[in-house]
Specification:
By secondary structure, the protein is mainly alpha-helical. It folds into 2 domains: 62 residues, no CATH class; 72 residues, no CATH class. It has 6 helices and no strands. Helix 4 packs parallel to helix 6.
Length: 145
């Protein structure tokens, strides 16, 4: 019945870890507080909201918490990571089923890149350097294959 709210609550927990949504008691308290704020102290539970109030509440939440709608999968950083993974897969960093061998790729990144960190821990400048390094490796791989 309140699927939309709980989906937004999950986004709030991810984007605002300080919001205090670590356990059920904190979530209940947070929910009461947010509904109280939205209704000006008139109500403090989802069930107490009318259908119209609930729809308005769902529209208000993302604005109130400045939730970003950017999809992390399409972020520039993730696209850079994917480029590194694809190039390394072409050089044999893959499992028998054809998927990327991420433990091996991350071990390579921790030992052979300037960042000395797993791909998900690298910053944009570090990822750029890693891409350059992998492209050079790939060129050498192609020329010697």
């Amino acid at each position: 019945m309140f699927k939309a709210y709980f989906a937004i609550e999950k986004k709030i927990a991810v984007q605002h870890p300080h919001a205090g949504l670590a356990n059920a008691d904190e979530k209940d308290e947070f929910r009461k507080s947010v509904i109280d704020q939205f209704t000006g102290g008139r109500k403090n539970s989802l069930k107490a909201l009318s259908a119209t109030e609930y729809r308005e509440f769902i529209k208000w939440l993302p604005t109130a918490f400045k939730l970003t709608t950017e999809d992390w999968k399409n972020s520039p950083e993730n696209n850079m990571r994917l480029k590194v993974i694809v190039l390394l897969k072409k050089q044999g960093y893959k499992l028998p089923n054809g998927k990327a061998d991420m433990p091996r790729i991350n071990a390579w990144a921790k030992t052979h890149t300037a960042a000395k960190a797993e791909l998900n821990s690298q910053t944009v400048p570090q990822l750029i350097a890693t891409i350059n390094q992998v492209q050079i490796m790939y060129t050498k791989y192609i020329n010697h294959a």
